[in-house]
Amino acid sequence: MLTIAMLLAALRRGASLNPERLKHVPKGWQVAAPSAADADVVEQRQLGHPANMVGVPAVSLCRHGYPQAVLQDPGAHKFGAGMLRLTCPHLCEAVDAWEAEGAVRALSAELLAEDANRDALRKVNERHAVTRKSMVQGEALARAEARLGADTVRRVLDSGITGLTPSKLDDVKCLHAQLADELLSRDNAVGKKVLEGLEARGVDPTGSEKCGEQCSGCVDGWRYTPRKNKQKLRATRARHKKLRELSLAGYATSFGPGRPLEPGVAASLEK
């Protein structure tokens, strides 16, 4: 039966941005191509920066119909292990608070003591490795190898969820990533336990009456910005300022051609 949230999400989705990008997403994910409205919500109101979006949950749990997580292109811009992101401010706030209480260590000890959960995590890691290799090919692969070296790129491609070493099955690493993976795949045992744990803590995974104010763009409404997002935004602004200064001084940057930068300076701007 269609829920109000499902209808809202369908109306918001409209024409997808680039459904062709989904052809590189292998089986095991339950995602839909994001619409321009999805991208606007995620990048402008939830994260505050570009997200290289490939997919959003095919069915969002959000009562307001907004995306709660995104599947990202690991080969876009700067290659890396990150391939998904929990974007829902309501869920991010709840998970941040839980992790601050030691939830990563506690859930790792509780869940990964069981063979079934370790096997489930192994399968999640395999799915992430297969997905990276499917999505990072051709020019994107060559660009990554030129910048990082073929060995480093291969290790990243082979890694599990959020860069987890495939054989390391005693650490859930990040509840945000596990929950995002569950929302995007419906096949993550640890992510399901995170959802159950949030509900046990009194958090409604579908949202609250007020949490939709941030995603709707309400100027004076409820909002939550994770501390690490604030730090990242400050670092990004500082890096862009430095790039502009170097460009004006005649050096080659993303703002235009010029004299080559010294290796040490170039490396510092890659961080």
From TrEMBL:
It comes from the Eukaryota. Pfam families: DUF501. InterPro entries: DUF501 (IPR007511). Residues 1-16 form the signal peptide. Keywords: Signal. PANTHER family: CONSERVED PROTEIN, DUF501 DOMAIN-CONTAINING PROTEIN. This is DUF222 domain-containing protein.
